[in-house]
């Protein structure tokens, strides 16, 4: 399968002003966002606490865009049903042992519910950790920062894993390649050149003076 054509932009709600959430969600949708990225943090798998299924259900009511739910939590398999009910279109879980789950079982439970299954790996995790699961996923998330906070600096060494994933895709796998963390107009170009087709962006969208310009610049137009 050749690389997907259009680069998809998924603004990360973590960077939005929660006191104006409805307005912000509608503004990025009007500005051309393709998906909405929702970061779920439990204070255990990562050293931060964000939000849960209730906020995902709220965003579901505000937008028809695909909801790309990123679970940075322990025991994600236990919580998958609640995010399915909240309206997630893609649910991504982490491969690291600190997530404390049976990765193949969790991915299968997501797909069994006709939801897209994603698998994420941190910058310090080798590609070999996800290789056994590539046939069972719809999306591979290569973290370009260590997870837990927005506004961090992009880590260019992670591009080697994007290239490895793209090689796997050239051998028949059909998953999207998503990058997340420190994505802006400059790093977006580098990621797309290496094979990523979905770009998550928090700070570079929600802190920009013009969401449409920021999104177009990352799409390379
Ligand atoms: C970090 C999250 C990212 C983060 C991106 O753990 O997974 O989605 O919100 O934010 P920026 O684009 O500001 O790095
Ligand atoms: Zn994320």
Describe, in plain words, how this protein is organized in 3D.
The chain is built from eight helices and eight strands, in the order βαβαβαβαββαβαβαα. By secondary structure, it is of the alpha/beta class. Strands 1-8-7-6-5-4-3-2 form an eight-stranded parallel sheet. The two termini are 25 Å apart. Bound molecules: D-xylitol-5-phosphate (DX5) and zinc ion. Zinc ion (ZN) binds next to strand 2.
- Describe the main β-sheet briefly: 8 strands, parallel
Q: Which strand order does the major sheet show?
A: 1-8-7-6-5-4-3-2
- The helix content is 25-40%
Strand content: 15-25%
The radius of gyration is: 16 Å
**Number of extended strands:** 8
Bulk shape: globular
H/E element sequence = EHEHEHEHEEHEHEHH
**Unreliably modeled segments:** none
Name its key features.
single chain; 221 residues; alpha/beta; eight-stranded parallel β-sheet; 8 helices; 19% strand; binds D-xylitol-5-phosphate; binds zinc ion
Summarize the structure.
The chain is an alpha/beta fold. It is built from eight helices and eight strands; from the N terminus they run βαβαβαβαββαβαβαα.
């Amino acid at each position: 399968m050749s690389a997907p054509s259009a680069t998809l932009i998924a603004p990360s709600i973590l960077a939005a002003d929660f006191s104006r959430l409805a307005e912000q969600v509608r503004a990025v949708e009007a500005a051309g966002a393709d998906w909405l990225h929702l970061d779920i943090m439990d204070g255990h798998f990562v050293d931060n606490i964000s939000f849960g299924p209730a906020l995902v259900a709220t965003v579901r009511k505000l937008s028809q865009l695909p909801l790309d739910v990123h679970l940075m939590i322990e025991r994600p398999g236990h919580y998958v049903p609640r995010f399915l009910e909240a309206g997630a279109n893609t649910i991504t879980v982490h491969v690291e042992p600190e997530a404390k789950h049976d990765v193949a079982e969790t991915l299968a439970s997501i797909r069994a519910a006709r939801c897209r299954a994603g698998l994420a790996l941190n910058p310090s995790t080798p590609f070999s950790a996800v290789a056994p699961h590539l046939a069972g996923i719809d999306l591979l998330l290569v973290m370009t920062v260590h997870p837990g906070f927005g506004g961090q600096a992009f880590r260019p060494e992670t591009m080697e894993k994007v290239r490895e994933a793209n090689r796997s895709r050239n051998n028949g796998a059909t998953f999207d390649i998503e990058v997340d963390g420190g994505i802006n107009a400059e790093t977006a170009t580098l990621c797309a050149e290496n094979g990523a087709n979905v770009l998550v962006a928090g700070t570079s969208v929600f802190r920009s003076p013009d969401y449409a310009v920021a999104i177009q610049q990352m799409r390379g137009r």
